[in-house]
Amino acid sequence: MKQVVFHEVGLPQEVLKYEEADIPQPKPHEVRIKVTARNINPSDIMFIRGMYGITPKLPSSAGFEAVGIVDAMDEKETLALGTKVIFTALGTWKEYVTVPVQSVISIPEELPDAVACQAFVNPLTAYAMLETSGLEEGDWLLVTAGASAFGKLVIQMANQKGIKVACTVRREEQKEVLTSLGASLVINTEKEKLQKVIMEKTGEGVAVVFDAVGGILGAKALACLKNNGKMMVFGLLSLENIPLNSGLLIFKNLKIEGFWLTSYMESINHEQREIAFKTVLSHLLSEKVKVDVQAIYPLNEFLEAIKEYEKGGRNGKVILVS
Q1: CATH topology classification for 123-262
Q2: Keywords for this entry (predicted)?
Q3: Quick one: which of 119, 187, 227, 308 is 20 to 30 A from 293 by CA?
Q4: 3-class secondary structure, 62
């Protein structure tokens, strides 16, 4: 089989290689999946660069999320051959992957691969963060990097719950896109002062911040919280830690907590996981929640795909297909 791997951490363009490898054989509790599509997430790039929370065991394939078809069954024959599934794994930029059968989710055939390969990480993170945020109808939520795939999903899901969403962007043309998805307020931080606009429009600040950026923007977002507010940190797109204002934390009684989907999924029971997946897949199938696709490339054109991923102003995911 073909796979994209790296033997040392570094910039993807410099360390990724397209190589031949043996097709993996599943263990008794595993299924083998013929991968049909996978999307490029920020976490994938950080993993390749050695900057993610999980250290790669070299050599390693890239990618955490994908969709595919069951090619070999586990010993209990839990899933039939040909079943369409989504899954997460360490290294999905390859033609075949073996994963524990309990970690894969069967999905309807009619869900397109370009959508299905995005159905795990971002939609579930958006669902889980809204569920655990404590936000109620009428509350204000601030989302940094609002034009990201995650930001768009949160806007759509929050809108269904009656939660008002403010979000940050860096390009004026993104305002109309996010407003059309249901955002109540979109702030271009290249031209507007975030805290000033938030206070003018909300009166007292937002109840919760979902921060994907960190750095100075994260600090500015923290200052937008009202008394007893909470910031949930789940990304570090700026690659810079948030410089914290201790006075804000003390006198406004603010809370900051991290969120990682892996930890969340481990903390909930089987019934809660079933509800989460059912809700997300229902949203995607009904198109109550939509995801965007920027471009689709074959796996062997991964370098071109990464170039597309790194383009400024990108409005959708870049997909790698087998």
Answers
A1: Rossmann fold (3.40.50)
A2: NADP, Oxidoreductase
A3: 187
A4: coil
The pLDDT of residue 138 is: 97
Which regions of the chain carry the CATH code 3.90.180.10?
2-118+291-321
pLDDT, tens digit, 9 for 90 and up, residues 56-73: 999 999 999 999 999 999
CATH number corresponding to 2-118+291-321: 3.90.180.10
User: Residue 128: which residues within 8 A CB-CB, separation 6 or more?
Assistant: 259, 261, 264, 276
Helix (H, G, I), strand (E, B), or coil: what is residue 86?
A: strand
The pTM of this model reads 0.89
pLDDT of residue 311: 86
H or E element, residue 294 = strand 293-298
Q: What number of helices (H) and strands (E) belong to the chain?
A: 12, 16
pLDDT at 126 over 90: yes
Q: Which of 167, 164, 215 is nearest to 194 (CA)?
A: 167
Helices (H), 22-118: 42-48, 113-116
